[in-house]
Write a structure and sequence with these properties.
This protein is α+β, with helices and mostly antiparallel strands. The chain has one domain. It has a 5-stranded mixed β-sheet with strand order 1-5-4-2-3. Strand 4 and strand 5 form a beta hairpin. The N and C termini lie close together (8 Å). The relative contact order is 0.24.
């Protein structure tokens, strides 16, 4: 499995959390595969959510919406999935792309 991530080392722990949960994220993604959802891992609850792209996008800041649009387009073109990891405790949200196989 390969992943793409932003070069922001402050979020390495969030990337690691997603990598550790990747088999479960992929299994959950498969259930909604035809809808190409955006996946969200909530760090504190350790729950995985699948959101429709448009519904997830409107919840983000304008800057994050632009980043999500670019990531989502790249994900579709390269058969990848968009995964967000949310850390409510430290008010962080990071996105990354993972291969979907």
């Amino acid at each position: 499995m390969t992943k793409e991530k932003r070069r922001d080392h402050r979020n390495d722990d969030l990337v690691e959390a997603a990598e550790n949960c990747l088999p479960n994220i992929l299994m959950f993604y498969k259930r909604f595969e035809e809808k190409r959802p955006v996946m969200l891992l909530d760090l504190q609850s350790r729950k995985i959510y699948a959101y429709p792209y448009k519904e997830f996008k409107v919840e983000l800041s304008e800057r994050s919406q632009v980043m999500l649009a670019a990531d989502y387009e790249k994900a579709i073109a390269k058969n990848k999935i968009v995964v967000f990891v949310r850390d409510n405790e430290n008010q962080r949200l990071a996105s990354m792309l993972f291969d979907y196989e």
